[in-house]
Design goal:
This protein has 225 residues and is of the alpha+beta class. The chain has one domain. The protein has helices spanning 6-16, 62-68, 127-134, 167-177, 196-201; strands spanning 23-24, 42-46, 49-55, 74-84, 92-103, 108-115, 118-124, 136-144, 154-162, 209-214. The chain has a 7-stranded antiparallel beta sheet, sandwiched between helices. Strand 2 and strand 3 (49-55) form a beta hairpin. The termini are far apart.
Length: 225
């Protein structure tokens, strides 16, 4: 049977845990979404939808990497809330969820990925492969461009959780993600996802690890790249 090379794994973890502009769950909590540390992201227009590309590989540290290789399921969730820069409630939500199990017999990671567009499965031969699938958002739809004001600016507040405690919340995320395309906007009846304080500030016992940051402010893109 093949064996993992400790030095190679250590190199992967060092290179993926140094991303600036991130807030781990042991740092001081910000009072507002706008006060979250800023992480550079790409915001583009894809087929009439505004999309987000941003990395968060640094949520997988040495401890989480050990959990990944234990053979027990590890769940990594990402939620991105679109806020108007001038303040107020979020207007849209995008999300993805990864369920990762290391197959001890075949020595591969088996991934179930739920994100806008549906559910897919993948296989990764190492932690780097897990990070490519689960540690990045790649052109994830945020909101229909027609629902964004030409005169306003926005940012996305992102929350990453590893092994969230609540199965109910995981189920809500999956149901939200599998809604029909173009229905990511938030309304008064969508408060089930909680307030900023409840989601981004609560730290005790609700996940193995949290990471929170915001993107730079942006104007809605007007043309596809």
């Amino acid at each position: 049977m093949r064996r993992w090379a400790p030095r190679v794994l250590a190199l992967v973890l060092v290179t993926t845990s140094s991303t600036p502009g991130a807030r781990a769950d042991d740092d001081a909590a910000p009072p507002t979404p706008a006060a979250l540390p800023v992480r550079a992201a790409q915001v583009t227009l894809e087929d009439h939808a505004v999309t987000l590309t941003v990395g968060f590989r640094d949520v997988v540290d040495a401890e989480i990497s050990k959990k990944l290789q234990s053979g027990l399921p590890t769940v990594l969730t990402m939620r991105g809330y679109v806020f108007p820069e001038q303040g107020g409630d979020p207007i849209a939500l995008t999300a993805k969820s990864c369920r990762i199990v290391y197959d001890l017999w075949d020595e591969v990671f088996r991934i179930q990925l739920t994100q806008p567009g549906g559910q897919t499965s993948a296989v990764a031969v190492n932690v780097e492969g897990v990070l490519r699938n689960c540690g990045e958002a790649k052109k994830m739809p945020l909101l229909a461009r027609a629902l964004m004001s030409d005169t306003a600016r926005y940012f996305v507040a992102v929350l990453i959780e590893v092994n969230p405690v609540s199965p109910e919340m995981l189920d809500r995320i999956k149901k939200w993600v599998t809604r029909p395309a173009g229905s990511s906007s938030l309304g008064p009846g969508d408060s089930l996802f909680g307030s900023f304080v409840g989601l981004f500030v609560a730290k005790v016992g609700d996940a193995d690890k949290k990471l929170a940051f915001r993107t730079q402010a942006f104007s809605p893109p007007t043309t596809a790249p």
